[in-house]
Amino acid sequence: xxxxVKQQWLIPFLPLVAAAVQSLLPRKARKLSAGICLTAMGAxxxxxxxxxxxxxxxxxxxxxxxxxxxxxxxxxxLQLGFILDPMxxxxxxxxxFVGFWIFVNATGYMSDDENxxxxxxxxxxxxxxxxxxxxxxxxxxxxxxxxxxGLCSYLLIGFWYFKPSxxxxxxxxxxxxxxxxxxxxxxxxxxxxxAGTLNLYDGGNGALEQAGKLAGLHGWFGWSMATTxxxxxxxxxxxxxxxxxxxxxxxxxMEGPTPVxxxxxxxxxxxxxxxxxxxxxxxxxxxxxxxxxxxxxDMVLWVGCFTALxxxxxxxxxxxIKRALAYSTCSQLGFMMMAxxxxxxxxxxxxxxxxxxxxxxxxxxxxxxIIGTHHEQDMRKMGGLRKYMPITxxxxxxxxxxxxxxPPFAGFFSKxxxxxxxxxxxxxxxxxxxxxxxxxxxxxxRQMFMVFAGKWRGGHHEPxxxxxxxxxxxxxxxxxxxxxxxxxxxxxxxxxxxxEELHGKSLVMGLSVAVGAAGILLGWLMYGRKTMAHAExxxxxxxxxxxLFTCLNRKWYVDEFYDATIIRATMLLGEFWRVFDxxxxxxxxxxxxxxAWGVSQVVRWVGDEFVINGxxxxxxxxVRLTGREFxxxxxxxxxxxxxxxxxxxxxxxxxxxxx
Amino acid sequence: MSVPLGYxxxxxxxxxxxxxxxxxxxxxxxxxxMSIEIMFNAAILNFVVFWYYLHNGALTGQMFxxxxxxxxxxxxxxxxxxxxxxxxxxxxxxxxxxxxxxx
Amino acid sequence: xxxxxLTLSAIMVLGAVLAVTLRxxxxxxxxxxxxxxxxxxxxxxxxxxxxxAAQILIYIGAVAVLILFAxxxxxxxxxxxxxxxxxxxxxxxxxxxxSSLAGMMCVFVRRxxxxxxxxxxxxxEGVVKEIGKLLVTDWVVPLEIMAxxxxxxxxxxxxxxxxxxxxx
Amino acid sequence: xxxxxxxxSLITFLPLAGSLVxxxxxxxxxxxxxxxxxxxxxxxxxxxxxxxxxxxxxxxMMFVERHSWITALHVDYYVGVDGLSIAMVFLTALVTPLAMxxxxxxxxxxxxxxFLFLLLQTGMFGVFTALNFFHWFIYWELGLIPMFFxxxxxxxxNRTYASxxxxxxxxxxxxxxxxxxxxLWMATGTFDFVExxxxxANGDLAKKIAVFVGDVNGRFGWHWNVTxxxxxxxxxxxxxxxxxxxxxxxxTWLPDxxxxxxxxxxxxxxxxxxxxxxxxxxxxxxxxxPSQVAAHVDILLLLALASIVLGAFAALAQTDFKRLVAYSSxxxxxxxxxxIFATAATAGPEMLNEKAAAxxxxxxxxxxxxxxxxxxxxxxxxxxxxxxxxxxxxxGGLRKIMPIYAGVLGITMFSSLGLPGLNGFVGEFLIxxxxxxxxxxxTVVATIGLVVTAVFLLQMMQKxxxxxxxxxxxxxxxxxxCELFIGAVLMLFMFLIGIYPAPLLDAxxxxxxxxxxxx
Amino acid sequence: MDAIYQLxxxxxxxxxxWLALALAIxxxxxxxxxxxxxxxxxxxxxxxxxxxxxxxxxxxNRVGPVGLFQPIADGLKLLTKEDIVPNAADKVVHFLAPVxxxxxxxxxxxxxxxxxGFIAVDLNIGVLFALAVSxxxxxxxxxxxxxxxxxxxxxxxxxxxxxxxxxxxxxxxxAVVVLMASGSLSSVSIVEAQRGLTGWFVCKPWGLVGFVIxxxxxxxxxxxxxxxxxxxxxxxxxxxxxxxxxxxxALFQMGEYVAAITMGGITVTMFLGGYLGPGCxxxxxxxxxxxxxxxxxxxxxxxxxxWARGTWPRVRVDQLxxxxxxxxxPLSLVNIVAMAVWHFAPNKxxxxxxxxxxxxxxxxxxxKINAGQTFEKRSYRFTx
Lengths: 659, 103, 168, 519, 384
Hints:
The complex is a heteropentamer.
Chain A: H1 2-7, H2 10-24, H3 30-56, E1 64-73, E2 76-84, H4 86-109, H5 116-135, H6 139-157, H7 164-195, H8 211-216, H9 225-240, H10 249-252, H11 258-267, H12 269-279, H13 281-285, H14 295-316, H15 321-341, H16 345-372, H17 385-388, H18 390-404, H19 410-425, H20 427-452, H21 468-483, H22 488-495, H23 505-528, H24 540-545, H25 547-553, H26 558-633, H27 638-658
Antiparallel strand pairs in A: 1-2
Helix pairs in contact in A: 2-3, 2-5, 3-4, 3-5, 4-5, 4-11, 4-16, 4-21, 5-6, 6-7, 7-9, 9-12, 9-14, 11-16, 12-15, 12-16, 14-15, 14-20, 15-16, 15-19, 15-20, 16-18, 16-19, 16-21, 18-20, 18-21, 19-20, 19-23, 20-23
Chain B: H1 5-25, H2 29-54, H3 60-90
Helix pairs in contact in B: 1-2, 2-3
Chain C: H1 2-21, H2 25-45, H3 49-78, H4 89-111, H5 127-136, H6 140-167
Helix pairs in contact in C: 1-2, 2-3
């Protein structure tokens, strides 16, 4: 276990090297770039597997840590470190495995793009950053990788930078996540200040190991120190995992290529927030217990629950296939956060894993659909793809069922666990969650029928099935979407977190199945029975709900709200200060300059004109005249001079004599 | 041998004034130079007189006179040369005509 | 002894006055020569015989001849040159100034305490040897400078006088 | 090289010698002039490198040279380098040749340009190495005058206004400083920074000033009280440096000076001249007026905060590319000042590590900002040479036709943004880590600056590189080899310090600790 | 003069001082005048006799036994001749000129030591006085030439002055050598310095050269023989004394001849050891023997002059001046150096050899340098 942790740094390092090499490759070295990227990902996947197997052997949660010094300052030193424990191993394995298959799909998806090499370079950079985040034992290193992941999402969203919408989307994504990161940063500062170190586990005096002590201290707003730090960290998580206030960037992130959406906005990056909360779980729960949990836990619970419901409602009203999936991701993340907030570390993490697989499956599926329909993204212009793209259809179906929570599939087990835990915590949250689950089932079936059922509503040329490198990954993922569910129980044991027995298990399970079935039934009723005839036909739901539907479609006008308030405010502030600088400060300066100039003029006019010039010139004139007079004396006659000389001598002698 | 010093000094002074008077009144440049020579000799006479009466052993007075004579000779030589060259230019040695350096 | 002094001074003064007043330049020159002889005589009287000889050698031998040459070179054009030209007031001014200066000098000499001073004892022999030694020891620098001065005067006089030749 | 070699004098006066050589070369030999100038500054770079390798951080002042100069005024030529200034000397030695290289294609009066540049470099070296106020002030002004001419002669549209404003503004500040040091000299009889520092440390300075004020009162019958007098001295010196840094209210000369300065000029102006102000705080204000700084620390913190936040907001609203980058400089310098004032915020040794972190961060921030702002201005210069316009609105989608340029601009932008893995982050992280425990509220507000910095830089990036290509720039050629070389060197340092900042920090650490222990 | 004064007092102490003083002054003058006038008369006779003998004719033999009274006859003739003065002449200057010619000649005699103890005035600057006075004759020449208002006389005067002035310088420098050797200016001490068998200065190498230079300059000074340009009969009638006749002419002749004698006297005192001779130190008749020696040597010098007059042709003016400035002057300077070398040499023999060699080299070099100038062929402008 200990020597394994020493190789942990290799996992993120390989993709990093690959990214560096690829960045130097010329544009036309397409095959080589893809090759390097895939081999690197494969290698780190093998390493992750080795690490995972390493952790399997031990029965209770074994943890190995390896810290190294980054640099010294003052009298202390700043350390970074790597960790190997069940959660990391699982996560790393999931990221590498899913990532690998997404890369395979990407080779197909991006085959006709001229910036192919640069795309794969960014992908491997992203992989490196994500893996770095996962294996980090130090909060600072985690934060650094966190920001790098944000950078990669920025670069990948804006991959097709010539599209203005992509340009604004990439900027928006980065800035929103950055706002979250500020919270995270403050949390780190607080932690480093209070705990003295940023290492999570450092043989006893790591930050998490001091959670108890931190709980005792006083933080902001009356919370304990641990809670304040947890809240700050959760803000970062909200930004990254697109929780309610900072979720606006996720739908716009769909501007990027679909594999990107799959990798970043489904499986890995957005999950980072949840993973981070899971990693810092000790901090969140410090100071509180199951009965009266800390404020942080409550916050996580309610934010998660609300996000789940909120985005589920929006997902229902979306026409773009990717946006619908984006909102579903949002709501699923809400579920995970809710689970964690309710105290269920294992359900949250398990749901994270399963969701990664089937959401990646769904996104890749939508990618195949888009390629198949020659870059058509609007569901209203699709339809009847079952005939044209059978493989994609079946894989997509498995993904949909898993997501909807139909029993045999992975989704059911993980979601059930989540609902169970929420049930324990608070009935209200559980109720909302089950309604959100119902909505999930509904919009997924809506999507299935709009896309695959009915007849082709798109343009003139028929859709076609995608090549092998596109459908193979979704096939593999669909297998996992099915199989993974069964490992639920063992995961709990694997993580070494022993949950006490939960009551009301059968009620919750039954209700969730019922709700899932009801959603599917309603979806079939609305969309399955009478599929839309042509693209322009209004959405049946729209007919039903009318104004509410448009409101859903427009994402509850959150973007517009933000634009109107925050963004305009900052722009105005900027304008104010720019004008302030130009007018006020420069005004003062110019004022001083003008007064100085004025004074100089006065002095010049008064002082020079009269006093000096007048007096001086007169003096000069006088001197010149007397000079002319004396000149006459110089007659040129030598004797004249001699006479004057003698006259002088005589006078002198007389004077001397008289004295 | 007992001529008092005063007589010699007066003699020197008178001679000097005669020379001065000549220098002032004569129109001819060479005459002026001659009167200057007289003034020079009056001065040198004084040197020797002072040496003779106050010398208590030191020969400085004579040395001075000797050098003064040498200088006077050099001076007159150059003066005359100048007069000759001026004469060639002005065709006359009348002092009043040499007014070129008028102020 | 002051008889000799008186006669000599009388001759000298007469010579000087004539040198200044005579109309004919050559006659003035002769008067000047007499004046120089008078000075030499006084030098002998004052036991400065080396100086007396030098005076004769330099003044009568060289300077008088020089002046003669100068007169010869400039005289034949200007004709008889009037000693006391009709300068009018300027002439009287000159004489007046000179005489007042002379009178004042006599008055001062009379009032100063030096007047009755008598000479020291007879000077010992070998004054010339003494002068020679002094010239080369204490006064060697003035001697060298005098040498330079004389050479410069020599060359200068030649150049000035000669220059005209070439020009024409 | 035997250890006794007078490194600092050599480094300082090598450019001066180079400038003379340039002066002597005939007018037609423009190429020779450029090569000579570059040779001189590269030589001093190599010397700096040798000095760096021999630099022992724990040894306090290194390479000290002390020769008595004007004995009457106890003024001596006292040169030395310690942790605080070694980084700056290296920065000057690194950036100036690059700035010169940026003007390799210069055509009009080349001789004067390179002469002024080398003179400027000498001035800058002098400021960072001088330890006696007398010749330090001479270098301070020497650094100013060539810059004035660079802007005046090779500047853009209204360069006269900008150059005058820059010169007179900074000069006014430095006059205040001169007067203050005049009084200090009268009180203590020495101009020497190190001596003044030791005096201030053991409290003698205050006593001497009290004595001085006492007999001044006695003689002239005024009745100044000592504290107001010392605080007047303090404020005069502080304003002098504040203008140079620039701290918020005194910063309006910077955008004008930058927009009108030629590429190389603004590179040097941003990279090094601003650091002279901050270095001034480290070398002069903090050690000599510790008690005053502590007394007025809250106002100073507010000012630093203003520079960060207001600088960022003002940058947000800029339409001119260079003005935007200039305001970003104001913002970044704000961080450095925050780090410095944080050390003065609490007395006593218990926050030692935090204060050391803040100060280390400030020193690092100075170096990093030097690198990233120089790169950023160079990038602006590169486009300006091609398009002759700085309005952001006119650009768009340059990435299509200038991919390499877009790449380098991206990396530079992210470095100045403070992205981890690049040099900006380490400095800012240390500052915040140090300042947070000491002045929590100010630091929290400062984080707004972080966000807004990201906003305006990304906005700039979007307007310039992304979005649809403005058809006017169809023919724009990509970066030439020479320009790429400059960019590459700067990027190399960005990555280097981003990944492994230890050498820089170790060098500065001991000096920083000594400074922090003063408070 | 003081010695005589003592003598007078011893013999006739009763005489009043001023009378004694006057006598002491007048007596030597009378003696000197008397002796040298007779020698002058004798000189004219000897010259005419010798010239006749050289030119293979008898010379004056009508008046007196061998023509001895010829000088007296000449004198009487000139006294009775009418004294013509040209009317345009400058009367005063015309009258003064002959006087000024004679006066310097006689004044120089005052310092010539005729015999042991017999010297008119023993000035301790004797030689310098003699040289100074001889320069005064220049003035007389010029006045004569100028006063007679005659082109030829003016031309003669100009030549005379140029000649005298340019030969004066080498003469004085040659005399300097003697002064250096004897260490004093008074003629008696110079003579005394030449005691001893080979004591005469002429026996020293530099003494010989000095004697030759001094002799040549003396001849030029007096305008005799090769240098008698001033009154070169063939070219400018009688030179500056064309317009003189009667007694003034006699004075001129007397002046010239007396000058010749005095120059001879000075040459004898300086180079030939004055009155020194084997018997001059005898107590009783020593002074008579010394006088004889003096006059014998004087005779030799005079004979040389006459001899030169008879045999050498006249020299041209530019050659005359060139010879003086370009040869005699440098030679005399070298002579002084040779004397210094001789003086400071470790012993007699070395000193002798060195100065001799130096002088020989100098003479050869100077002659070679001036070869071009000295007696080059005369060019006629108007005749072919």
